[in-house]
Amino acid sequence: MSGANTKHDDTLFEMLKECKTLPNFLDAIFGFLNRRTDFYHIASDPKAAVGLPEGLAEKIAQSAFFKWKMKPPETVRPDDIPADGEEVIISDEVMEEAANSSEDKQTAPKLPINSDCQFSKSDYYNGAAFDNYCWSQTITDVDVIVKLPENVSRKDLNVNIQTSKITVKHKENTTLLSGEFCQKCKANDAIWSVDNGKLIIHLDKSKEMWWNCLLKSEPEIDISQIDCSRPYEELPEDAQAKIEELQWNQERKRLGLPTSEEMAMHKTLEKAWNAEGSPFNGPFDPSKVQFS
């Protein structure tokens, strides 16, 4: 159908494959609207900033259904679609968002993304990949990679990173990435660079925790399925010391030598052996001591 927006087709198709059936897919879509938007919230006042007037949510869903229904226009009953002249009051927030979207479409020509730029699995390790960007994470930080139009340099970009949100725009006012983080980051420590047609952003998390999405508008990942191991250099000093001790002890056992625990025990026994009034005679001999 002409005028179709295919930007999210790949993401939605992957979602459909996971859901396996259309009912499950639609249930996930409307469940998302219920959890993350005010789609199901009925506004108590027409001018309320949150919620929709009663009945508007159903009309929006119905209108979208008939918009894409593969039927000649004359087969659709007039009362199936909201009348053009029907007065509907929508919150100021929704109107502002629609106005901004319209302005972007008029003033920001779509730039072709570099088709040679592809994401590898390591680029979205413990994260997710989408059409134009991907993200990965450790327990302490997040890395974001954004595909850029051809021949774009650092000076062509406006990257605005705040504690709770991010906006990446081309100098021609084309938005490449925008949204609210699912958790807070240390905005002052953010680092970004441009390399091989990609914008690479590094963020430090405000808290050590696993993120189930980068932006709140994304589908959540199952954090129970991610790799929760931590690189050795990111472990606390006491944890690193313990690992080194375990490795040293394993090597001592392999060579038939006493471990650190056995050496500490021998030292304690030797002190007791040589103490005044000790029942033992002669030099300390650990072979005469039996360990249980």
Provide structural commentary.
By secondary structure, the chain is α+β, with helices and mostly antiparallel strands. The protein has 3 domains: about 70 residues, no CATH class; about 110 residues, Immunoglobulin-like (Sandwich), CATH 2.60.40; about 30 residues, no CATH class. The protein contains 6 helices and 8 strands. A 5-stranded antiparallel β-sheet has the order 1-2-3-8-7, with no helix packed on it. A hairpin with a 2-residue loop joins strand 7 and strand 8.
Question: What is the overall shape?
Answer: elongated
Number of helices: 6
Helix share, percent = 25-40%
CATH architecture verdict of the largest domain: Sandwich
- If you compute it from the alpha carbons, what radius of gyration comes out, rounded to the nearest whole angstrom? 31 Å
CATH fold call of the largest domain: Immunoglobulin-like
Output the helix-strand order: HHHHEEEEEEEEHH
Backbone structural class: alpha+beta
The unreliable regions are 71-76, 84-88, 101-112
Notable features of this structure?
292 residues; alpha+beta; 3 domains; five-stranded antiparallel beta sheet; three-stranded antiparallel beta sheet; 15% strand; elongated; NudC_fam; Nuclear migration protein nudC
